[in-house]
Amino acid sequence: MTDSQKTLVAGLLAAFMLFMSGSLFAETDPAEDSKAVAERVQDLKKKVIRLNRDLFILEEDLLFPASTQFVVFLSVDAGKFLQLDAVKLKVNGDIVASHLYTERQVTALERGGMQRLYIGNLKTGTHEVTAFVEGIGPNNRAYKQAATVSFEKGTDTAALEIRIEDRSSDYQPMVSIVEWE
Amino acid sequence: MTRPVAFSLKPNKTGTGTRLGAVAAGCLALLLSVPAVFAEESPERAKDPAYGWVLYNYHQGEAFEALTLLDVARERGGIRGHGDYPELVEGGLMLSYGMTREARELFIRLLEDEYGRSRVTLAPDVRSQAWFYLGKVFYLEGDYHLAYENLQRVDSEVLEEADSELHAEWLYLRAQLAMISEEFSDSAGGYETLIKSLKHSGPWAHYLNYNLAMADIAADDFTAAQQSLQELISVMDAESPNDDLISEHGALRDQSRLSLARLYLRDGKFDEALTLLGAMPLDGVFSDRGLFDYAVAAAGQGEMQRALDALNALSQRDLFLPWREQVPYARGYVLEQMDKPREALQAFTLAAEHYENRGEELVADKQALTEENLMARLNFHRDNDEIVTDSYGRLRVTPADFGLSEVLATEPFQQALGELNELYRMQALLAQREQQLGTFETMLETRRVQRARRSQEAGIELEQQQPDEWIEAQKAFRADIEAALAEEDAEFFMTTEQKALKARLGKVAATLAQLPDDQRTARQRKKYQRMKAYFDWSVANDYGVNRWAAQKQLRELSSEMEQLQTQRSDIEQLMAGDSEHEELASRLANNAAEVQSLKVQVDEALAQARNILISRLDNAREQQSSELRRYRVASRHAQARLADQLFRAGKSTEAAND
Fold first, then answer.
1. Cβ–Cβ of B605/A31 closer than 8 Å?
2. Do the chains contact at B60 and A28, CB–CB below 8 Å?
3. What phi and psi, each to the nearest 5 degrees, are found at residue B16?
């Protein structure tokens, strides 16, 4: 190798080694200030969750006092025979809620989640609740089913659950409404 | 995924490694499944709707909402029927939401008491996985002490049996920690033992071996580094990875080749370097860098034309990457070495102009560097307006300006970016809550006004009923009855009929008193006496019944009056104030104050996070500027030298001609 070539190689090596060392060995530990911000953000997250909780409870106390509160949940048990698409809820003949489900929501329901479909107020006395469930049933056919229940609203919060279950006896989905004590 | 592939392929960049970046997407699913794994033993159906609702949010990845609902449930007496599982779910959610310290405390409380026993009955593999994820999150955060502490809690055999992939990652992380500091090294053999355990663990072992080679270079042990890299490349060449690992495998192999080629160049082994670099694909992540090194190797071999061709090819690239800044200077240098002084002069002139312009751009850039224009140079991956993040809260982002790629790939920058995003989300949430509180306030005020009006109407109605007079009359009646009872005054308790009879008897007695005293009158007086006696007897006889009836009436009246008094007092109390309203108003005021205080704290944290982010970029820019200055000066010097050389050569030619 000539001297000039050596110079070139040395020059170029110096140049790229500079970059190599910059890219491969720039072992930058998070600086202390970054750590402080990270801890601060964590602390703020905790506070924001607490505030959100307080506001959630305040909202319910304000808008849906326990004496008149009426809640409807929806759950799917397994969901093998029905791919849930939409739900409508009627209370005393009026549609009070309707929901179209995304794939993510359906998955969450199938994994054991319960959706709070509706929250409102009802007077004490007898009321009628009807749920209309739509989706794709067995053999890829459109499926619609309704379930109705009459229940007595007392002075405590009333909670109902629309249950969509798999019925293994005839491989069909089954919709029912149950009351939570 | 932690980072886009193009920017994650620097195994030792942050001590995190490509592998972590590449498997982050997989970890998201695993991390999210941690509570689901915990919940395996729990009942299939939620026994408490509150828990079901938490799971609904949790399975959608809505960690903030799920954590809020868990907190709401706790405030209302907790979740029934699920034991400690909700808390385990909370721990998983905290990890997802980036509350790592809280999650650690919770896991320690739940999974390990003072005797190292778990408070909840959990499958050992689930427990080990929980410690693994916790350790990994701290490792990614750069908190190596906590990472080590939690990774040490993992039961190696249990984890290996449950999930060999996770076990390999666990060994990798421990080896990385041992490389960082000896205090994280186990007494039995340090990371060498871990490497042996990892030997057949595919990608993790490769990443670790690569990082070890880099550590050798850092320690100036180039021979060991060469040997490690040669072994690594030969092992990787012999492997046929699965389809999903092909690109990652190829990228690491190219990176290893590149590093080994640089070591060959360092030792002047140009042949070996050329062979190695020639085997690199032209469309790989490192192909450009490989091409540059190829130019160096070719120049070293004396094949200047090949070197120039490679550099020319690199000069045609449009994308700006900081390391490519050396190309214009290198081009001039090669041309000079090829004894083409005119072309070299032109190349150095162009290079100097390029560095000049680029330097000015960087200065202008630095002066105009704001958060807005930084964000404008980043492309955030979005899903329904939400920026997509990985399971560790890092944003999925690629640079629109490739000059940012290196700084963007660093873990601290990613963290700062993620924190900034979190703070903005908090700011938006607080603004939303502030608005909501305003609505609540209006609602409460409206309710208070309506209530005041109704109270006023009730008060007027109450006053119209003259309750005080009724109360007085009742008191007088009671006093009369009590007096008559004391005196056993039968006449007082006479019925209306008896009173009428008594009046008629009185009239008869008065008439008889005015009649002459004859026989007829005497007969009538006798008859009157008999009637009077009968009347007195009947009054005395009915006394008990009449007294009871009067007392009953009095009791009923008293009860009614008491009710009236209570109602009146209630109405007066309600008119005077509303405790429920006051309680709600007080909560509202407290929450409003909390929102304001948090807004200030978030703003301060935002300013801090913003400064960190900008200063990190600023430092990177400063480094680039300084490198550009060096190249500019070198180009100018070369330019002057060549101009002088050409001038002298010109003069010599003229003299010769003369």
1. no
2. no
3. -95, -45
